[in-house]
Write a structure and sequence with these properties.
Layout: H1 2-9, E1 26-28, E2 37-42, E3 51-56, E4 61-66, E5 72-77, H2 83-88, E6 100-102, E7 112-119, H3 123-128, E8 147-154, E9 160-168
Antiparallel strand pairs: 1-2, 2-7, 3-4, 3-6, 4-5, 7-8, 8-9
The chain binds zinc ion (ZN) (2 copies).
């Protein structure tokens, strides 16, 4: 037990399937995180946890903007993130489509707290699918997740959508 907790403390998050583009903004929460799943809240490097939400392609491209420092991050891009996009290079999204801002259906406000859940087949499964000539390396295992769920909570009125985005990516 003692050894395990030492091991866990050292680079704990390195073993979680947190996609590369979320490494600096996803803060793991709860006690169910492992090499196969990770749940975390989204926090801007400036410390703020409220974001505007913009989406296109039926929420297959989701961009968030920090309400404080205005930093913009692509939270999910179904043509680049996830197993099919990474392993098969599948991208059928219309990148000319303009993004629409999402507003709270209850109060009309535009600032949300965000929780992301990622499910992954794990690094071993990914390694077994690696072959010579691939455009990706073992480090990309975190990007080849097979499910993503995004939950929103309105900062103003507390409206919650547990699966605002609930998408299988494999
Ligand atoms: Zn910020
Ligand atoms: Zn609201």
């Amino acid at each position: 037990m003692r050894l395990f907790s030492l091991f866990k403390k050292k680079d704990e998050n390195e073993y979680l399937p947190i996609p590369t583009h979320m490494k600096s903004i996803l803060v793991p929460v709860g006690d169910k995180n492992s090499g196969f799943e990770a749940t975390g809240k989204i926090k801007c490097p400036c410390g703020n946890e409220c974001f505007e939400i913009w989406e296109s392609n039926d929420r297959q491209i989701v961009t968030i903007v920090c309400t404080k420092c205005k930093e913009k991050v692509v939270l999910f891009d179904g043509g680049k993130h996830g197993w099919d996009a990474v392993m098969c290079g599948q991208d059928g999204l219309d990148r000319e489509m303009p993004s629409r801002q999402f507003f709270c259906p209850e109060c009309g406000e535009n600032a949300f707290r965000i929780t992301v859940y990622i499910s992954s087949p794990g690094i071993v499964d990914f390694a077994e699918n690696l072959s010579d000539g691939d455009a990706f390396t073992l480090d990309d295992w975190v990007n080849a997740f097979d499910w993503i769920t995004v939950s929103l909570s309105c900062e103003k009125c507390g409206w919650v959508d547990e699966d605002w985005l609930d998408c299988e990516t494999a």
